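Section 5: illustrative case.
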């Protein structure tokens, strides 16, 4: 059992966890909102350290990341627990933890050293923490990311973004990509979807990842009928991306399918997603992608300057056609495509 980082000791053997924006005050013998960071004798213990529920070698496009090492394979890890409780969660079986003690009995253990070795053995270009919220096994992802950096492997968080600034600053030197969900742009939507308040901290953390730590950032919004599909909300997300992250930041608007507590809702109409793409471009974004609709033309990367199709995608099959470094091979326009690593630890 590894002792957690970033917590305060309080009176009565209570503790305050400072890894995510809930900043849970945890009584002895209890866990925080995530269900996997527990108070044992006045210490925060991550009950899921190195406990892996899900493991797969995925196309990087599956995250989805379209402008980060396109065409490569990433070894993806998940554990259990989450600091959100989303009504539309696709992985609720591992995100919702009812019996933390079961974690130690039922999950495989893969040490940071073993994780990096597995990535190399499977010829993966990097590692991603995904499937559930990576922040809840912060210490494990940090230890593994440090080793991955030494071996020249890239590192990815697929996250809801609800991390504290101090936690981001600890892992920032070792994390290369921040693929963040922006679920909506109002208090009501975040309450309805994820039972979360204080969601604007997600925006601040994403901005910090981009500007302080020079991470590659891509944004995903799962567009859900009658919940977050109104023009005002989608336009506000697009405007924030352009103003705070930059016009070259990719925005993925993805199709919702009925799931979990939202099984009664219909799939997102294609026309709604196409309207979201239009709203994004009207806001000044250069790259807006339509997701969960394999074969749609809005999966492709097209140079905004000369109209050349730079990268062609069909589902997770990627064909690089006109890319030179991070630029369009035809006209030289900057496309914000990261395909080289800075092997120096960022300060």
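Designed sequence:
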């Amino acid at each position: 059992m590894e002792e957690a980082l970033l917590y305060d000791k309080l009176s009565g053997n209570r503790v305050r966890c400072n890894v995510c924006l809930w900043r849970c005050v945890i009584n002895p013998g209890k866990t925080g909102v995530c269900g996997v960071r527990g108070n044992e004798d006045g210490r925060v213990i991550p009950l899921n350290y190195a406990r892996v529920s899900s493991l797969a070698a995925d196309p990087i496009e599956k995250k989805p990341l379209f402008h980060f090492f396109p065409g490569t394979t990433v070894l993806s890890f998940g554990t259990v627990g989450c600091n959100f409780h989303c009504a539309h969660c696709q992985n609720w079986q591992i995100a919702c933890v009812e019996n933390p003690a079961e974690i130690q009995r039922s999950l495989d253990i893969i040490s940071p050293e073993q994780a990096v070795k597995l990535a190399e053995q499977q010829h993966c270009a990097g590692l991603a923490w995904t499937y559930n919220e990576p922040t809840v096994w912060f210490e494990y992802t940090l230890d593994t990311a440090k080793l991955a950096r030494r071996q020249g492997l890239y590192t990815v968080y697929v996250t809801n973004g609800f991390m504290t600034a101090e936690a981001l600053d600890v892992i920032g030197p070792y994390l290369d990509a921040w693929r963040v969900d922006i679920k909506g742009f109002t208090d009501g939507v975040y309450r309805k979807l994820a039972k979360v308040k204080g969601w604007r901290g997600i925006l601040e953390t994403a901005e910090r990842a981009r500007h302080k730590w020079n991470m590659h950032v891509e944004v995903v919004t799962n567009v859900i009928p009658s919940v977050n599909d109104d023009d005002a909300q989608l336009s506000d997300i697009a405007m924030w991306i352009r103003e705070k992250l930059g016009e070259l930041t990719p925005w993925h608007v993805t199709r919702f399918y009925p799931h979990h507590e939202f099984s009664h809702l219909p799939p997102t109409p294609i026309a709604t997603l196409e309207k979201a793409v239009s709203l994004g471009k009207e806001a000044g974004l250069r790259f807006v992608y339509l997701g969960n609709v394999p074969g749609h033309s809005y999966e492709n990367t097209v140079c905004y300057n000369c109209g050349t199709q730079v990268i062609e995608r069909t589902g997770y099959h990627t064909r690089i056609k006109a890319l030179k470094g991070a630029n369009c091979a035809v006209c030289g326009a900057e496309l914000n495509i990261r395909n080289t690593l800075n092997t120096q630890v960022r300060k």
